[in-house]
Specification:
Blueprint lengths: L1 E2 L9 H9 L10 E4 L6 H9 L4 E7 L3 H6 L6 H14 L3 E8 L6 H13 L4 E6 L18 H17 L4 E3 L2 E3 L6 H7 L12 E4 L2 E5 L3 H9 L5 E6 L2 H12 L6 E2 L13 E4 L2 E4 L1 H5 L1 H7 L4
Helix pairs in contact: 1-2, 5-6
């Protein structure tokens, strides 16, 4: 179970805990809640653990105050250190430190300091995603603040080298973890698994059918209050499309794809490596994963 795609810890902890307790989960299930560092307190973590939460995914983004300000974050590096201390003290089984590279004002040197600082916090799991420019946002309206692809590539290599050297190998292009601390919900998506999404803008997938809910909270609440479906749209994948997507998702992980699925394409020579009967991306391949994915589609 994953509660996020926003900041659920803005809700009163007791109310959030009450909701979590209403959701039946199997024994040993991983239950993750997203949080900002400045929301983390001893009381919050204790309440969430009592409600069955086994993992917290914390949006750290950066340990550079200038970059945090540019991203519009409300926390500072000291609050990150304090929050991680709370998680360690609580004995939480797993937690994520989630980073974003390419924020405005971030140099290669400051990014390396962020990565090194994150490792020093000793998190079981780290994520590092390139900053994405979404349409109709202030960032989209200011090209001078957009990340540069070559800069992101250099920063990715730094992150991968340092995380791996710290004992956290990659298991998906943007995710690294100590052994046994990989995110189950994350793995489910790359394995093309089934999942149900609840709330505004939530997505679901079952047996090749995908659907999604209306985007805004007010519309979602209005529909549900009237007993109407909040579904906004859907699509059903044909057999070929589903097979191709399965390959394109799997190649992003260390499990890779079967060597029998690898096309005879010389352009892939330094982008993948064959390990036994599996094909896995090289580091350069991870930087050009979309190019590899395109070549896995025979259509």
């Amino acid at each position: 179970m994953f509660v996020g795609g926003g900041t659920p810890t803005l809700v009163d902890p007791d109310e959030l805990g009450a909701v979590l307790r209403r959701i039946p989960v199997a024994g040993g299930a991983e239950v993750t809640v997203e949080s900002n560092p400045d929301d983390i307190t001893d009381a919050l973590v204790s309440t969430l653990q009592d409600a069955g939460v086994t993992r917290i995914s914390m949006g750290v983004q950066s340990l550079d105050p200038i970059v945090l300000q540019g991203l519009g974050r409300t926390h500072d590096p000291d609050q990150v250190v304090r929050a991680v201390g709370v998680l360690h003290s609580a004995g939480l089984d797993s937690f994520n430190v989630d980073l974003i590279m390419g924020g405005y004002g971030e140099s290669v040197e400051s990014w390396q300091r962020t990565v090194e600082g994150a490792i020093a916090l000793d998190p079981p799991h780290v994520s590092a995603y390139g900053l994405t420019v979404e349409a109709a946002t202030p960032l989209a309206d200011d090209p001078s603040r957009h990340p540069d692809d070559d800069d992101l590539a250099e920063k990715y290599v730094i992150a991968d080298e340092l995380f791996e050297a710290s004992g956290r190998p990659w298991y998906e292009i943007s995710n690294w973890a100590l052994e046994g601390h990989e995110c189950r919900h994350n793995q489910l998506y790359w394995e093309q698994g089934d999942y149900l999404g609840f709330g505004c803008a939530a997505h679901s997938h079952t047996d090749g059918e995908r659907w999604w809910n209306v985007r805004t909270p007010d519309r979602y609440l209005e529909l549900r209050a009237d007993g109407r479906s909040a579904r906004s749209g859907s699509e059903t994948l044909d057999v070929t499309t589903r097979r191709v997507e399965a390959l394109q998702l799997a190649i992003r992980t260390t499990e890779g794809i079967s060597s029998a699925e690898l096309p005879d394409d010389p352009d892939l020579a330094d982008l993948v490596v064959i390990e036994g009967d599996r094909v896995v991306l090289t580091r350069r391949g991870r930087l050009l994963a979309n190019e590899v994915a395109i070549r896995l589609d025979p259509r």
